[in-house]
C-alpha cells in the first residue's frame, strides 16, 4: 500500500511536468523541423534548413557575441564575487547577515526597472556625467550608452548575486580546522588557499559559474536597452524570429540549440559537483 501511495503521489507531478514542460518542448522541437510559409505561416514540410541557417556568418557572429559576453560576465563575477563571499563568510553573524541582505535586495526590484536606473545614470545627460562635469573632471559628456562596456557592466551587476550566494554557501560550510591544519604544517597563506580552500569550495564555484553563464547568454533586454542596434544577443534574435520576422521554425531551431547548450552546462555541473565532493583539483 505504501508503494502504491508513493506512485499515486508522483503521478500528478509527472502530469504537471508533461503538460506544462514536456508538451511545449516537443512542440518547439517539431516546429524547428518545419518550413516557413508565406506571411509568417508554417508549412508541415520537413527540412533541416533552419538548423543550417544557424551556421551563416551573421548568426554565428550573434552567437559569438552572446557567448563572449557570458564568458566575460562569468569571469568578472567570479573575480568579484569569490573574495566578497569569502570575506563575508568570515565576518561576525550580524555583519554577515547585513551584507547578505544587501546582496539580496536587488532581487526585490524588477530587473527591467534596475536597467532603466542604469540608463538614467549612464546616459549623456545622466547623473554620472553631471557629477563628473560638476567637479571639473571632464569638460564634455562621455558616451557610455550603446557600447559593449555598458552592456557588460550591467550584465555583471545583474548576475553578481548568483555567483556570491553559491560561493558563500560553500565557504561557510568549509571546516575551519582544515586551513588551520595546513598552516600548522608550514604552508603559507596562499598555498593553503590554493591547495585547501579553493578545492574544497570548488562546488560553490561551479554552481555560481553555471547560474551566471546560462542566463548571461540569453539576457537580451540589457543589450537592447544599453547596446542599441549595434549589439544583438541570441535571446533577442529568437524574439525577433517569433515576432517581427515571423519565422517561427527558425526561431524554434535557435531555441532548441540554446536548450541543448543549457542541458550541456547542467550536465557538466552535475558531473563536476560529484567529483568535487572529495576535492576537484
Describe what you observe in this structure.
It is a single chain. This protein is mostly helical. The protein has a single domain, classed as MetI-like (MetI-like fold, Orthogonal Bundle), CATH 1.10.3720.10. The chain is built from 13 helices and two strands, in the order αββαααααααααααα. Strands 1-2 form a two-stranded antiparallel ribbon. β1 and β2 form a beta hairpin. α3 packs across α7, α3 runs antiparallel to α10 and α8 runs antiparallel to α9. The chain is globular, with a radius of gyration of 24 Å.
Number of helices: 13
The structural domain count equals: 1
Number of beta strands: 2
Round the mean pLDDT to the nearest integer and report it. Answer: 85
Head-to-tail CA distance between termini? 47 Å
Strand content: under 5%
CATH homologous superfamily assignment: MetI-like
- The CATH topology name reads MetI-like fold
CATH architecture: Orthogonal Bundle
Low-confidence stretches: none
CATH class: Mainly Alpha
Content-based structural category: mainly alpha
SSE layout and pairing:
Elements: H1 2-31, E1 35-36, E2 42-43, H2 49-53, H3 57-89, H4 93-104, H5 111-122, H6 127-134, H7 148-172, H8 177-184, H9 189-200, H10 202-218, H11 220-227, H12 234-242, H13 248-276
Antiparallel strand pairs: 1-2
Helix pairs in contact: 3-7, 3-10, 5-11, 7-10, 7-11, 8-9, 10-13, 12-13
Summarize this entry quickly.
With 281 residues, the protein is an all-alpha fold. The chain is built from 13 helices and two strands.
Essential attributes:
mainly alpha, MetI-like fold, 13 helices, 2 strands, globular
Amino acid at each position: 500500500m505504501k508503494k502504491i501511495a508513493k506512485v499515486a503521489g508522483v503521478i500528478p507531478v509527472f502530469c504537471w511536468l508533461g503538460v506544462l514542460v514536456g508538451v511545449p518542448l516537443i512542440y518547439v522541437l517539431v516546429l524547428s523541423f518545419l518550413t516557413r510559409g508565406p506571411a509568417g505561416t508554417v508549412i508541415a514540410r520537413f527540412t533541416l534548413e533552419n538548423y543550417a541557417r544557424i551556421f551563416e556568418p551573421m548568426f554565428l557572429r550573434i552567437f559569438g557575441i552572446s557567448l563572449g559576453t557570458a564568458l566575460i560576465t562569468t569571469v568578472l563575477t567570479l573575480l568579484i564575487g569569490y573574495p566578497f563571499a569569502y570575506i563575508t563568510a568570515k565576518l561576525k553573524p550580524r555583519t554577515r547577515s547585513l551584507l547578505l541582505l544587501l546582496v539580496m535586495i536587488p532581487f526585490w526590484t524588477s530587473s527591467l526597472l534596475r536597467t532603466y536606473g542604469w540608463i538614467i545614470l549612464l546616459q549623456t545627460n545622466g547623473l554620472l556625467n553631471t557629477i563628473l562635469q560638476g567637479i571639473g573632471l571632464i569638460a564634455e559628456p562621455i558616451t557610455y550608452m550603446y557600447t559593449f562596456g555598458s552592456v557588460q557592466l550591467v550584465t555583471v551587476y545583474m548576475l553578481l548575486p548568483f555567483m556570491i550566494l553559491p560561493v558563500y554557501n560553500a565557504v561557510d560550510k568549509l571546516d575551519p580546522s582544515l586551513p588551520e591544519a595546513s598552516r600548522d604544517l608550514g604552508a603559507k597563506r596562499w598555498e593553503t588557499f590554493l591547495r585547501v580552500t579553493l578545492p574544497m569550495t570548488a562546488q560553490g564555484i561551479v554552481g555560481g559559474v553555471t547560474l551566471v553563464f546560462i542566463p548571461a547568454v540569453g539576457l537580451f533586454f540589457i543589450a537592447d536597452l544599453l547596446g542599441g542596434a549595434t549589439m544583438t544577443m541570441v535571446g533577442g534574435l529568437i524574439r525577433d524570429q517569433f515576432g517581427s520576422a515571423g519565422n517561427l521554425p527558425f526561431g524554434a531551431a535557435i531555441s532548441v540549440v540554446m536548450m541543448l547548450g543549457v542541458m550541456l552546462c547542467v550536465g557538466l555541473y552535475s558531473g563536476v559537483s560529484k567529483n568535487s565532493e572529495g576535492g576537484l583539483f
